[in-house]
Amino acid sequence: MVIGWAGMRGVVTLAAAFILPPQTPQRVVLVLAAFVVVAGTLVLQGTTLPMLVRRMGLPGPDPAQDALQEAALLHDMVRVALVRLDEITTDNDPPEVVQGLRNRLQGRTDAAWEQLGRQSALNETPSDAYRRLRLDLLQVEREHCLKARDTGAADDVVLRRVLERLDVEESMLDRDEEEPAQDDRELRAPASLAEACKHLAHGWRDIPASSEDTCAACIEEGLTWVHLRMCLKCGNVACCDSSVGKHADKHFRDTRHPVMRSYEPGESWRWCFVDKQLG
Questions:
Q1: Three-class SS of residue 76?
Q2: Which residue range(s) make up the domain with 24?
Q3: Backbone angles phi, psi at 232, to 5 degrees
Q4: Could you say which of 34, 56, 78 is where a domain stops?
Q5: How many whole angstroms separate alpha carbon 221 and alpha carbon 179?
Q6: What values do phi and psi take at 142, rounded to 5?
Q7: How many domains does the chain have?
Q8: What pLDDT, in 10s, does the model give residues 173-224?
């Protein structure tokens, strides 16, 4: 209904009226009628569209919610890709190439999860550190390329190709830098996702967390963390997979407690380690 109400049908009507042949009977009347339709849709429907949206109770866009679902989808994609990598890898494939592919895939999904959470400006995620360092290196590479152009050390076609590669990589880094806007709404996964997993559908009781805003294992090992997760079975608070320690995952492997939730402020989305399911 909203799409129909917001549609600019009058534009098509007016365009059709103007292309009528001059000898068309009552052409002036038809053009005038088309103009009235355009004015009516712009004034009546345009001014009442916000009221219609409010009356229907439609939610506004939620970039943070989109980022959460994007991270979950990328996680599944990477998991499938890693399974395929194991299937196609042979003894003739260089181990460093295979490991490089694994690191690149894991880095992609980690970067997506790192976009979530409300960190202080003092905390820099691994993907943020990579972006900062790589952008600096790209600038140095571009300056060297421009010097080669000025001195005639390289052919113009070659220079354009190299600069295009740098521009493409920089544009991807700039895209990754766009953080989802945060608001006062609690970030949780759609309820429909939990129905596909028996562990997420289980009625977990509220239990106290083992610590407040810290990963005890990281402190003990002298490490830092990116985001925190809390086990819904025992309340253990541990760091996420983007952190060096990956203590939330280690806690699952040690205890087999299946579900954790985000322990970041304003977030209550959950994750099932068994089914690899957001919920």
A1: helix
A2: 2-56
A3: -80, -10
A4: 56
A5: 30
A6: -65, -40
A7: 2
A8: 876 555 555 555 677 777 777 677 889 888 888 888 888 789 999 999 999 8
Query: Can you give the CATH number for the domain in which 215 is found?
Result: 3.30.40.10
Contacts of 162 (CB under 8 A, 6+ apart): 145, 154
pLDDT in tens, 229-253: 999 999 999 999 989 999 999 999 9
Is residue 254 one of the residues assigned to a domain? yes
Ramachandran area for residue 213 (φ above 0: left; ψ -120 to 50: alpha; else beta):
left
Give a yes or no: residue 226 inside a domain: yes
Query: How does DSSP assign 149-212, residue by residue?
Result: HHHT-S-HHHHHHHHHHHHHHHHHHHHHT-PPPP-SS-B---HHHHTT-HHHHS-PPP---SSS
Would residue 47 count as lying in a domain? Answer: yes
CA distances from 120 to 76, 109, 239, 264 (A): 28, 22, 16, 11
